[in-house]
Amino acid sequence: MAEGNATFTDDNVILFLHGATSPSICDFDLSYQDYSWADWLVNQGYVVYMGDYRNYGGSTREAAMDDPPAKNQPLTRSYLALRDVEAMVDAIKTKRGIRRVTLIGWSWGAMIAGYYASLHSENVRKLVLYAPLYNFNDHTNLGPGSSLQNKRKPREFNFSLGAYRLASEAANTGRWNGEIPVENKDEYRDPALPAEFWNACLATDPTSNSRSPPSLRAPNGVLEDSFYQATDRPLWNAANIYAPTLIIGGNFDTWSYQEDREGLMRDLIHAPTKKNVLITDATHFVLFEKKRFEFFDQVLRFLRQ
Predict the structure, then answer these.
(1) What is the CATH number of the domain that holds 288?
(2) Which domain holds residue 216?
(3) Are strands 13-17 and 2-3 parallel, antiparallel or unpaired?
(4) 114/121 Cα distance (integer angstroms)
(5) Which tens digit of pLDDT belongs to each residue from 154-210?
(6) 23/305 Cα distance (integer angstroms)
(7) Strand 2-3 to strand 47-51: parallel, antiparallel, or no bridges (unpaired)?
(8) SS3 sequence of 213-281
(9) Whole-prediction pTM value?
(10) Domain count along the chain
(11) Strand, coil or helix: what is 121?
């Protein structure tokens, strides 16, 4: 999907890449009040594209997504999501007659954006890594000792998790609540936001209301690859990135840690410019929090440099 100016240049075309669980439309174009980051960027003069990896949102779903999760291996591994991004970028370049696009990836999308840029920097005008996982090997949620680990074979992924998982509003909001360090979560966000966000996500899965409570199917390939990334088996090396890069996130994020950001800054030796910005009093979901305009402004400043 494209919106915005009728003029297309290497400097004004953006592709958003979504994270591990929810697809692009609810992540970046939430139709609740002024919470669409895509709309905000369009109003700043940019052209915005969003795409879903296979088995997410509006993209094609494999037959295995209709089987019980235990019947198949994790779906949508990162190398396959990478192929989808390659197709997205190539289509945008061809349609708009440009040479490069700016990538903005959130969470797993930041990992995929970095992975893509490490292989195809010639196609990347600028790179924004929002809440990236990179090289922190003591990651409490994704690494050693986490539910992703095979407890009998500690270096092996827990394949019993199956092809995909069922994500509920309660689980997503519980994770968000866990990152907010005050009892009154409304200090950080609009109280209606968790339900508004999750309802938009559920609408992208035609089977969501067939389960009680309603849930979103999310492929587990991201979990397998994130486990490897968090146990000293990286999928990509930031030293292979030759595009200007911004690393940004909230200080209470439990997906992306200080060590991940420091590792990226260390390894981005060929990026013409690199910058690490930490938004205080913010979580993994800062784009939906009261600090979102500070976050948006930092990204905009980088895009306009």
Answers:
(1) 3.40.50.1820
(2) 2-304
(3) unpaired
(4) 10
(5) 999 999 999 999 999 999 999 999 999 999 999 999 999 999 999 999 999 999 999
(6) 29
(7) antiparallel
(8) CCCEEEECHHHHHHHHHCCCCCCCCHHHCCCCEEEEEECCCCCCCHHHHHHHHHHCCCCCCEEEEEECC
(9) 0.97
(10) 1
(11) helix
